[in-house]
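This is your field. Have a critical look at the following sequence-structure pair:

***
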Amino acid sequence: MEKNAAVAIVAICCVAAIAVFAQSNSLVEVVQLDPTIRIDLRYATDRNFMGKPVYSDARAFLQQPVADAVVSAHRWLKKQGYGLIIYDAYRPWSVTKLFWDIVPPEKRSYVADPATGSRHNRGCAVDVGLYDLATGKEIAMPSPYDELTERASIHYRGGTAVQRAHRDLLRRAMEREGKFRVFAGEWWHYNFRNCNYPVLDIPFSSL
């Protein structure tokens, strides 16, 4: 009886491991779908709120349906003369834990609780901005990317009218098909609505 129970537990663990591997294996590199999407993964540089690189590679991965929706938004924007920049996509869970441990308690509304994991950890959240197709220049928004202040809010009425218009254009592009929803506190952060994926902690080198 005990032997059968042990075998059953091992089998369940194996099935779970296979399921997680299958989900991780479905992560796709966004530029493989459309190389005109610009990748500027800030956490692979020191240009982020941490002030140091926390990713080993500047590569953007998402679950396949999420990546497809990002490509669709990018191609719609190209008709308006703009393109998407990806600042962050899939994020290993261990990085989320690092953020939680370092950010002061009063700022933790800006980072995910590692106890539950984030949509970034599941490959179904993406941080994006705009660039001008004609000049290649990044488009300014009411706040810089990753600024943990009220200026990052999607409802912030400061900045210039042009900056707010670009922020609203980005939101229109991302939400027009009903697949993404903006995180109100961060104009750059978009959550894929149908996020039935496990939390992953796979390093970029293994993808």
